[in-house]
C-alpha cells in the first residue's frame, strides 16, 4: 500500500494507488508531521479513490459539498480518526438511539445478525455504568478479519479491531472476540476521556509517561471480563474461569517478583512492546497485574459495603470529576477516590500492589465471598525450559529465572539435541515423566555453536493452573456477598 500526501493550508490530500485490490487502511497519526501552530485549527482530508466501487469509512464528518472530503475540528481529532478505504461491508445499526456502524474487511465465519445484537447489548451494558454514551456522531467498529492477527486500538469515536477470520464460529473464539469488543469500547470512557495527568494534553513531540496505565488498561481488562457476564453473554462460571486463567498467567510470570506495577506502567515505552527472550523474567504486564489489582479493589469495596458499592462507583466518580471535563487526574487523586469509596485506608494496599513486588493478597480478598484459589500441580519435575521446534531443531525459547536450567547456564537460542544421550522427541514433558524430583539428567546442547553437556538436577513440580472455587460450606454472609456479586 502506497499513500502519497501533502499538507498545505491545514489541508491534507491523500491519493491512494498501488493498493490491495479491495482494501486500504490508514491512520493519519502514522502519516502526518506534527505542526504545533496548526494544533487547534480545523483540518480537511480529501481522499482520491482508485476505483469507483470503493468507499470510505471514517468517524470524521464528510463535507456536505464533497462526500470524499472529511473535516476534523482540530489536530487531535485528525490523528485520532482512522480511514478504511475499499470494498468493505458496512452494517448500520442503532444502540441507545445513537447511530453505529460495523465496517468489516475480509471474509470469515462471522454471523452479522448475532454480531449486531450482541454489540447492542455490550454498548447498553457499558453505557449503564457511566450514565449514557459520550458521543453524538456515529460510532464505528472497524474490523479486519485476517489469517491470524489479534488486537485492537481505541479511538474517541471508533475502534479498530483485528481478529482471526475463522475463529468466530466456536463459542470460545466468539467469546474472546466479544471481550475484545468490550475492551476497546470501554476505552471510550477510560483512556479517551478519563485520562491521567500525563496524557491530559497530548505532546506529539515526545513520549508521554504515566504510572497509571494499570488503571487505564488493567481496569479496562478487568471490565472486559465483567461486561459480557453482566450483559448475559457469558455465565458467572465463565467469568470465574477467566479470572482463574488470568491468575495462572500472573503466577506463571517470574517478572511479577522483579518489576513493580507502577514501574511497568511508566516503562511501557521502552519495555512492554519491546519484548525479548528474557521479558517474562524481569517484566510484568500492567494489563494483567492491573486487572488483578482492580479485581481485588472491586472485592474490597463490595465486601466493605455489603455490595451496595463496587468499582463501578470509582469509574462513575472518575467520569464526573475528570472524564466529562477532560481534566487529567493524578495518581494521588485516583487513589483517594478509590479509598473513599472503599471506606477504609488503602495506603498499605497501594504500596504493596502498585509499588512493590510482594504477592497480591488473593486469599484475603476472596474469603468474604466464600471463594478460594485451588492449585493444580504439574505432573513432572521442574526443569524450567520452554522449547519450540524450528525446522526440526528444538530451540530454547525461554529459561525461567532460578530454575534448574537457568542455574546451569542454558539460554534462549540454545539447541537441545539429546536428553540422557537420546534424541529429544516432540514433547519434553513426556520424557520428564520418567524422572523424579532430585534426579539428575544430562542435556546435550549447542550453546553459541559449542557442543555442551550439562548435568541438571530436577526440582519439585510447580503449580500449573489456578482456579477460583466455591467453598464447600460457606457461611450465610459469604453466600449473600457472592450472590449479590455473581448471582451464584
Which terms summarize this structure?
488 residues; 15 helices; 21 strands; disordered N terminus
Give your account of this protein's structure.
The chain is an alpha+beta fold and 488 residues long. The chain is 33% helix and 26% strand. It has helices at residues 75-79, 112-130, 171-186, 213-230, 236-251, 261-266, 279-282, 286-305, 311-323, 331-342, 347-355, 362-366, 404-407, 428-432, 476-486; strands at residues 2-8, 11-17, 23-26, 43-48, 55-57, 61-63, 66-72, 83-86, 89-95, 98-105, 139-146, 151-154, 158-164, 371-377, 385-390, 393-399, 415-419, 422-423, 440-447, 450-457, 463-470. Strands 15, 16, 17, 18, 19 and 20 form a 6-stranded antiparallel β-sheet that branches. Strands 1-2-4-7-6 form a 5-stranded mixed β-sheet. Helix 4 crosses helix 8 (286-305). Mean pLDDT is 91; it is low at 1-10.
Give a concise summary.
With 488 residues, the chain is an alpha+beta fold.
Annotate the secondary structure layout:
Elements: E1 2-8, E2 11-17, E3 23-26, E4 43-48, E5 55-57, E6 61-63, E7 66-72, H1 75-79, E8 83-86, E9 89-95, E10 98-105, H2 112-130, E11 139-146, E12 151-154, E13 158-164, H3 171-186, H4 213-230, H5 236-251, H6 261-266, H7 279-282, H8 286-305, H9 311-323, H10 331-342, H11 347-355, H12 362-366, E14 371-377, E15 385-390, E16 393-399, H13 404-407, E17 415-419, E18 422-423, H14 428-432, E19 440-447, E20 450-457, E21 463-470, H15 476-486
Parallel strand pairs: 2-4, 10-11, 11-13
Antiparallel strand pairs: 1-2, 3-8, 4-7, 5-8, 6-7, 9-10, 12-13, 14-21, 15-16, 16-17, 17-18, 17-19, 19-20
